């Protein structure tokens, strides 16, 4: 039975909307007739002029508000964090990334294991050690490099200079070697120190 009512409503809902609009239009015309009854022609003209100005103003305000992006939706964006806060957040994220890395394979043990064959040593070095360095470097470049450089530029604009930080960031631009993890830790330490000097 409920489906029948839904079907009937879907069939007539357009007509119901039209009937409601027709009723509202006739009510508006009746109200205008009541307002203008007994008024002289010049008084009716002034009333129509005032109503026309009111209508134009309402349309103009509606159009202006709708043309502003996001005017209908209140903004819930958080204010941008301070430079100090953004540096500390970055350092925490980079520290977590570094902390999740497994220990780098021991180069000396690998050499001791394959010291008789340079070919086998090179093969295992590439597969174990160099691939570890490459993955560490790739993660830094993919997730952290751009932010690190931008934060460093912002620190320079805030008159915070740190040669050790600059050297560490420059070293990260080169192909990864055994001390890459230590360089990342140096970047974290130097950024934290630089941020702590901000006002």
Descriptive key words:
199 residues; mainly alpha; 2 domains; 8 helices
Q: Can you count the beta strands?
A: 0
Counting DSSP H or I runs of 4 or more residues, the number of helices is: 8
Structural class determined from secondary elements: mainly alpha
What is the string of helix and strand elements?
A: HHHHHHHH
* N-end to C-end Cα span: 72 Å
**Count of distinct structural domains:** 2
Q: Helicity level, as a percent range?
A: over 70%
Low-confidence runs of at least 5 consecutive residues: none
From the alpha carbons, calculate the radius of gyration and give it in angstroms.
36 Å
How does the overall form come out from the CA principal axes? Answer: elongated
Strand content: under 5%
Average pLDDT, all residues: 83
The main pleated sheet reads as: none
Structure overview:
This protein is an all-alpha fold and 199 residues long. It contains eight helices and no strands. The protein is elongated, with a radius of gyration of 36 Å. The model has no long low-confidence stretch (mean pLDDT 83).
């Amino acid at each position: 039975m409920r489906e029948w009512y839904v079907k009937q409503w879907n069939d007539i809902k357009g007509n119901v909307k039209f009937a409601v609009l027709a009723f509202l239009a006739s009510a508006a015309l009746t109200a205008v007739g009541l307002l203008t009854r007994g008024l002289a022609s010049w008084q009716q003209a002034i009333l129509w002029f005032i109503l026309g100005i009111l209508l134009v103003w309402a349309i103009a305000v509606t159009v202006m508000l709708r043309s502003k992006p996001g005017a209908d939706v209140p903004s819930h964006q958080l204010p941008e964090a301070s430079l100090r806060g953004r540096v500390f957040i970055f350092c925490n994220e980079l520290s977590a990334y570094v902390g999740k890395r497994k220990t780098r394979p021991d180069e000396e043990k690998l050499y001791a294991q394959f010291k008789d064959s340079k070919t086998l040593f090179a093969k295992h070095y590439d597969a174990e050690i160099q691939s570890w360095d490459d993955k560490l470097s790739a993660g830094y470049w993919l997730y952290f490099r751009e932010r690190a450089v931008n934060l460093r530029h912002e620190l320079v604009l805030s008159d915070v200079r740190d040669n050790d930080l600059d050297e560490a960031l420059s070293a990260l631009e080169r192909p990864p070697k055994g001390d890459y993890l230590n360089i990342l830790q140096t970047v974290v330490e130097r950024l934290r120190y630089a941020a702590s000097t901000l006002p």
